[in-house]
Amino acid sequence: MDTTLIFSTAAERAVAADQFADYVARARRLDVAAWDYLYLLAFPQVYRYVAARVPSTADAEDVTEETFVGALQSVAGLRAHDEAGFLAWLYQIARHKLADRLRQRYRRPTEPLDPTLEIVDGDPTPEEAVVRAAERAAVREALAGLTPEQQEVIVMKFVLEYDNAKTASVMGKSPGAINQLQHRALAQLRKMLSKRGR
Asked: What number is the average pLDDT over the span 22-29?
């Protein structure tokens, strides 16, 4: 469900901003309809934000769910009034949930697969799946080597497909600063990937 609206005039944008602020205020009072609206608006963006940082779809689904549960538990303290502030708040919660997941992974070693488990054949061939997984892992590893701000700008620009203005609004920077940050992040990412032969 696409809840994104395109407003052509400043008056329409002002009305939309007032309506969004009303939804946030109602959500703070635990209004179910308001929370549902905000959830539907933000879920795809939060999911893509998380999926860019975890190795599997299952992990992305789990962390996204944990993010929204955490958000619902702390919505009464939400101070944002606009969409950018609301998304920045959700991304902050997601970052904490991702860090929690990483800590859990280091504390608890994974168990090997049951050798009797039958694996269902999927669309890609085993070779293609290995290549794709290796490419995703290489990009994820290189992304982890960037500064937190560089990681944010790469995810927002290329995973969430935000333009400079929306990225700037969510990150609390100017569009020019976002452009420079993106340029430096891409150069650093290219450098790290080329060192790994990618």
From this structure: 92
